[in-house]
Amino acid sequence: MAKKNRITMEFNGYSVLERRLKEIGGNAKKTAESALKASHNIVTKKLDSAISPHRKTGDVEESLNKAPEVKWTGDIGEIKVGFNISDGGLPSIFLMYGTKLFGQPHISPDENLYNAVYGTKTKKELQKIQREVYEKSIERAMKK
After folding, report:
1. 71 contact partners, CB below 8 Å, separation of at least 6
2. Is the pLDDT of residue 3 over 50?
């Protein structure tokens, strides 16, 4: 689902729904963008909530990528999620994975922050919303 800090379309039956959408004249690219943006919104809300207990200066929260922008490489679309590391988001890595000092934990990993992007519950939510977006798009295309 999320690799590095990107979300792609990955749910069971994706290729079947995409093919069906194309067959009935639906806009597969627009549908994929809608599904990816909906996925971005879910992850962003979770991250915003999970980072709030760590607020000191607000820099990390402000670095949260809130503008969903789909990037296309050929026919593969992906969307960035998470914090902009070069714009104040570097501490999010240490919070998410924890740190060690002389081999001993110094900062424990924040599981809520990690799970907001990579957790099983989040992955299932993303798969569900992506499937729903495709199914609704197919329904609309069939009514035309």
Report:
1. 77, 78, 79, 80
2. no
